[in-house]
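Project outcomes to date are best conveyed with an example. Our students and postdoctoral researchers have been running inverse folding experiments weekly, and each run begins with a structure described purely in tokens. The record below, which covers 589 residues, was selected by the lab manager from last quarter's runs and is presented without edits.
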């Protein structure tokens, strides 16, 4: 079974069991400042797991594009990926353990053809006052699983979430593929990483909310959140040694081989895999409108492109090549993810531009490197701080510095460099993790006000500046809103004043904010603004603010604009070519 067949079989199976197929959400979480990327199918569903009504109902299914950057340095082995697809099905306060386990078992054995003795199960052993999940164990036993196929683990293994500091979470039961190879030791089990077991599916029974004090309280509704990694299931079904040998990556690997003239064999395996993974991730990130930059998602994108470019040079190929590879990727994944096809020109050009930029960076780095060689010719050692500066300021890869230094008969103080590098990594990790700190389900009073302010700002720009203005991005933190929109030039101070006055007038009038559910077509007829794509489903929520704004949105919003108290624009700047960015705050001024 290939990836496309697997996606289709999965969706069909759950549709037949009354699940609505929701589209894959963007890799860039909308209105969620607490994460850089969507890391699981449940991310975009947090408000609904907390009890908000989902327009498509209480049973959902999809395949979701995800990025997890934590493992970026492990990419190159047989299984790690930065971008992957997750197959997921959800019950929002509908069915619970019994049906969820039944569905998974049915799908794995009857659709995918796994034998019961090829599977192993883990369940929550109980911890921190939360009892052992005997219910799940009993359900598995009733399907014919023997005691030695069922393993009990604590929170470290059989608990999922919250994805941030606070949010929905719960015990899970995980399904593993057992390769049949002998146990590596007496204690060998699914949590062991000897390779005997591979996790296939994770069924989370989300019935708790973890609050800021670390306490668990029961959720309003009991949910099921499941996730199955598409690439690893393909690997198992196809009986190949790594995800890169599966049909998911085959065409990409062949293209790399064609471009570089090298075979996908040792010593190049790792380089091939890094290039394949990173370029695929970059293509998907670009398709969601991110451009390479120094911060946030753009920084990750840049890192992926540069790393792929470096690995291609290791294969002996130095020119830009990514747009050629991207063509294959768009062809392979465009059917499931039409945004790739819609944005392909942007993807190809952005890749080439960034590759060329990196080449220039390398040239500058090389120049600096040669200067350092001359300056230090007496000692023939490159100090850690110099090597780090080459890396940090010139983007010059450390392996390259080491290689070139060796050629010149220099040594590099790697120990000092490593220390500096680790410090730098910890700092970026802290920066990235800091993004999680707010907790995912951050529907606090403050961010709610900023959501409503964003609608007013959007309306003001379209009413007063240009009716063709469209939202190109929105990001809300506790402190401020950030709104990106298309416009060819800087706004004048007078224009900004007008926009700000409009929003403040709307606040003073204390306009009611109302929400109505309707079909997408009705919303269109009503003139609601918003993205009319499938991810909103057939039924959408339309928020209306007095007679000022009418917009499709998931919420949450205040009930009256007066709650915002006041509005102030902090900054108007360029965000990308043709895109302006406004940062603003609400409160008493
Ligand atoms: N949220 C769970 C996971 O990421 C199940 O989808 O594994």
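After processing, the design step wrote out the following sequence:
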């Amino acid at each position: 079974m290939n990836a496309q067949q697997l996606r289709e079989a999965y969706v069909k199976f759950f549709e037949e069991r009354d699940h609505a197929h929701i589209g894959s959400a963007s890799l860039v979480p909308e209105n969620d400042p607490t994460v850089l990327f969507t890391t699981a199918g449940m991310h975009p569903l947090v408000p609904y797991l907390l009890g908000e009504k989902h327009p498509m109902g209480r049973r959902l299914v999809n395949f979701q594009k995800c990025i997890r950057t934590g493992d970026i340095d492990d990419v190159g082995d047989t299984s790690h990926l930065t971008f992957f697809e997750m197959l997921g099905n959800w019950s929002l306060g509908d069915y619970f353990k019994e049906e969820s386990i039944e569905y998974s078992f049915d799908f794995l054995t009857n659709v995918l053809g796994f034998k019961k003795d090829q599977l192993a199960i883990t369940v929550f052993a109980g911890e921190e006052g939360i009892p052992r999940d005997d219910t799940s164990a009993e359900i598995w036993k009733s399907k014919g699983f023997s005691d030695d196929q069922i393993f009990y683990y604590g929170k470290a293994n059989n608990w999922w979430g919250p994805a941030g500091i606070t949010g929905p979470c719960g015990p899970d039961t995980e399904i593993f593929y057992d390769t049949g190879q002998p146990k590596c030791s007496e204690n060998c089990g699914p949590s062991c990483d000897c390779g005997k077991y591979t996790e296939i599916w994770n069924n989370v029974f989300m019935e708790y909310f973890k609050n800021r004090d670390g306490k668990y309280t029961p959720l309003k509704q009991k949910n099921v959140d499941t996730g199955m990694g598409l690439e690893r299931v393909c690997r198992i079904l196809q009986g190949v040694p790594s995800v890169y040998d599966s049909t998911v990556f085959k065409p990409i690997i062949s293209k790399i081989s064609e471009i570089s003239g090298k075979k996908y064999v040792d010593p190049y395996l790792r380089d091939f895999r890094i290039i394949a993974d990173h370029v695929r991730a970059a293509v998907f990130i670009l398709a969601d409108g991110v451009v390479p930059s120094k911060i946030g998602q753009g920084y990750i994108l840049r890192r992926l492109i540069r790393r792929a470019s470096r690995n291609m040079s290791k294969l002996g190929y130095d020119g830009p090549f990514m747009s050629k590879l991207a063509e294959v990727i768009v062809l392979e994944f465009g059917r499931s993810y039409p945004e790739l096809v819609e944005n392909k020109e942007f993807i190809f050009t952005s890749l080439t531009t960034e590759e060329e930029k990196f080449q220039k960076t390398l040239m500058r780095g090389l120049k600096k490197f040669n200067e350092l060689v001359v300056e230090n010719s007496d000692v023939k050692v490159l100090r850690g701080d110099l090597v780090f500066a080459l890396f940090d300021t010139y983007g010059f890869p450390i392996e390259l510095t080491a290689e070139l230094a060796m050629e010149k008969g220099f040594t590099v103080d790697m120990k000092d460099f490593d220390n500096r590098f680790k410090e730098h990594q910890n700092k970026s990790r802290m920066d990235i993790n800091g993004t999680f700190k707010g907790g995912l389900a951050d529907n606090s009073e403050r961010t709610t006000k900023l959501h409503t302010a964003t609608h007013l700002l959007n309306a003001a720009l379209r009413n007063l500046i240009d009716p063709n203005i469209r939202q190109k991005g929105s990001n809300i933190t506790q402190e401020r809103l950030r709104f990106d929109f298309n416009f060819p030039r800087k706004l004048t101070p007078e224009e900004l004043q007008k926009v700000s006055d409009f929003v403040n007038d709307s606040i003073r009038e204390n306009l009611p904010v109302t929400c109505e559910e309707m079909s997408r077509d009705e919303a269109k007829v009503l003139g609601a603004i918003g993205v009319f794509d499938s991810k909103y489903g057939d039924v959408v929520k339309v928020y209306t603010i007095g007679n000022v704004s009418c917009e499709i949105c998931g919420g949450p919003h205040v009930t009256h604009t007066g709650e915002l108290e006041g509005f102030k624009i902090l900054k108007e700047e360029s965000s990308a070519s043709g895109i302006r960015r406004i940062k603003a705050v609400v409160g008493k001024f």
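The longest strand covers residues 197-210. The chain is about 40% helix and 20% strand. The training component of this project remains on track.
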